[in-house]
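Supplementary notes for students who missed Thursday's class. We covered one full example, reproduced here. Read the sequence, then the structure, then the short commentary at the end.
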Amino acid sequence: MDKPQIILYAQKSLNYTLFDCKWLPYSAKFVVLGNHARGTGAIQIYELESGDVKLVKETEKLKAFKCGTFGASKVETRHLATGDFDGNLNIWDLEKLETPVYSVKAHKEIINAIDGVGGLGIGEGAPEIVTASRDGSVKIWDPRQKELPVAVIEAAENETKRDAWAACFGHSYNSYERVVCSGYDNGDIKLFDLRNMCLKWETNVKNGVCCLEFDRKDIIMNKLLATTLESKIHVYDMRTQNDTNGGFVKVTEKAHDSTVWLGKHLPQNREVFMTCGGGGSMYLWKYNYPSSRVTKDSNGDEMGVPGSLSLLQNVGLSSQPISGFDWSPDKLGLAVSTSFDQTIRVTVCTKLNTI
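Structure (token representation):
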């Protein structure tokens, strides 16, 4: 019993398909995004109340929602940015859900992934949002600038456009530096330097990349987690780049016996993360650093040394894929998840302060 336990605290069945969930910063509330059977979008806000989840507010919109983030919002306003099935990027004031405070037709097709930085006191510099779409493009938006994206990352005209499944920010440790990492259905992972507007690194992991996340957005790049089809989890050490040996070193694990849909780092401890699988399972991992993170290659150049992963705990909560997962930034071990069995689940991980 020394290991952390994953305990189901509360669950609630809903009547629509759930795609994403996010805790409202500094509260016991969370927002759930999805789509009704008639194709419309659902935004619902729930609150934890004495062992149960209580619906606080809900609204229905024209287009189904796929993903959301608070990452570019101020702490005071807590505006939610959403990507929908029609390629629209909207930012909502959750107190006034009638009309969005910002709206742009970001992509021609569905927005698969969204991430934000520069808000909530996380990451230096301007607030920015990244969207990844089936149309093959990844775009960076500044909510203070209407209509036009800050940057567009897409294939050249003569190249095949790949479905962009994942995108995330990182390296935002001062007001100049920032990178965005994108993952595609053919296994490509591309790292773009937004300061110099260039491709910094690319690789291929042979399977479609479902989720990407840096262990922290607001520090010098440290680790990058990539989860893919075919049960694969990759963790890259991003501190030392050696292009003659493939760029960054990584450790790979096989888990879930299904697609690994999501990987999310614990806000209070960057070495701990949860992965969520296509079979409804959750695996809790810890990254162990090697004794030395840098070694020399045959040419005498510095290259990274991969660490190892320890499986701390795993649990099966659903028979369907887990589509959304979010750790509470305020309460250690508290998390909310959504799955395709149309159920939201609030879980508690114990003993995380001891690992």
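Commentary. The two ends are 13 Å apart (CA to CA). The chain has a mean pLDDT of 95. If anything here is unclear, bring it to office hours.
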